[in-house]
Amino acid sequence: MPFTEVPLNTLVVGDIIYCDVRIDKNDMADPNSKSTTARKINNGQPVTRLAVVLVAGATSVRVTYLATFAGATALPASFADKSYWYPFTPATKESTYDPLPARADSPVAQWASLRATQTVTQTPVKRVDGGNIGTASADLIRAAMKA
Fold first, then answer.
1. Which residues form the domain of 60?
2. Closest C-alpha to 144, from 99, 101, 83
3. What is the pLDDT of residues 18-56, one digit of tens each?
4. Are 4 and 126 in contact (CB under 8 A)?
5. pLDDT tens by residue, 3-19
6. Are 111 and 76 in contact (CB under 8 A)?
7. Superkingdom of this entry's organism (predicted)?
8. How far apart are alpha carbons 97 and 28 in whole angstroms?
9. How many domains does the chain contain in total?
10. Which of 47, 12, 52, 16 has its CA nearest to residue 33?
11. CB distance 63 to 120 below 8 Å
């Protein structure tokens, strides 16, 4: 996936970026995983993930991270509350949210975490070339955020 390093103040709502985020332990598909990433999540350390810009700003942006769950079109069975995820086509509707249009730059099923937004202040960031989900989709995600 090609990307371009850009300053934060050039990002717009809907842009997809690579950034460091803290993934909530409840968002782990396999809570028993012993992988390096799982250890970081369990220790509260940041991991680099794709994220969607929900609020743009001059010195910071608010984002939520995206997950693919190994390309599956359905959420892992380990998630008791599926309302914490907003699907992108070809992901299936499993809660109250109809899937958003597929990302033009990625044919893989994805979900936006609705647990909480995070503030990114690191600059520059890596913006995915052609990776913008549009303001309407970003607004739907932002409106559905739990915190």
1. 3-144
2. 83
3. 999 999 998 988 888 889 999 999 999 999 999 999 999
4. yes
5. 999 999 999 999 999 99
6. no
7. Eukaryota
8. 20
9. 1
10. 47
11. yes
